[in-house]
Amino acid sequence: MSESFLTSRRDGAVEYLTLNRPDVRNAFNEAVIAQLTAWAARAAADTSLRVVVLAGAGKVFSAGADAEWMARMATYGERENLEDAQRAAAMFRAINALPCAVIGRVHGAALGGGSGLCAVCDIVVAADSAVFGFTETKLGILPAMISPFVLPKIGVSAARELFLTGMRFSALRAREVGLVHQVVAESELDASVAAYVREILTAAPTGVAAAKQLIPHVWGQRPEEVADLTAATIARQRVSPEGQEGLRAFLSKQRPGWAEGVEP
Length: 264
Prior knowledge:
This protein is of the alpha/beta class. It folds into two domains: 6-199, Alpha-Beta Complex (2-enoyl-CoA Hydratase, Chain A, domain 1), CATH 3.90.226.10; 204-259, Lyase 2-enoyl-coa Hydratase, Chain  A, domain 2 (Orthogonal Bundle). Helices cover 48% and strands 16% of the residues. The strands form two sheets. A six-stranded mixed sheet has the order 1-2-3-4-6-9, sandwiched between helices. Strands 5-7-8 form a three-stranded mixed sheet. β2, α1 and β3 (51-56) form a beta-alpha-beta unit. α3 packs parallel to α4 (113-120). The model has no long low-confidence stretch (mean pLDDT 95).
């Protein structure tokens, strides 16, 4: 059996998934991509999973592509490079499409594909010392595979600056452009992540999944273009078991079942 580059710890409805290649700064290679893709398929099928916290072992979150993997890419023809890129793109799509909430816990550096992972997280909490960068152009390539996920987060203007220069930027700049949601001292990372976990656990699982699915369909559309979709979505959720339970709990000033046991 090949070596696992992921470690996982489960705490009830929360999974703590860690990239575990600290010797190479949690860089991606074919094995990491395959393992993350397989993990995402399992996570998508796990209806008891409500939150994933994604982190990196060692000193950094992820430094992007592995040097040995890149050396192999340099020997590939266009077809081999296409197949390789398609596998990586499928990994990002799989994580992005998870129905549960995904929280990125970022420290050290998140470069190239590491910043791409941040883009497919729903929430990113970063240490104030963390460094980000879409550094691909420095290597003569470009952040093509991650662009469908990065652009909705940071917008066209920031992408033109950060993609074209390949420059590294701070956690504060990452928050400014929308890649990161909260910046804290590294010693406060776990507490800040835990606070987000608690908030998500007090939200209805099907509501979270439906809201996550709704966002890309509504974003960029005129209100009249999505009027039928949004009305049908809320109507369907109102009559769902969780929708009914949530409304009854609100009216009776009780906590719904999915929030039982969650610290206030």
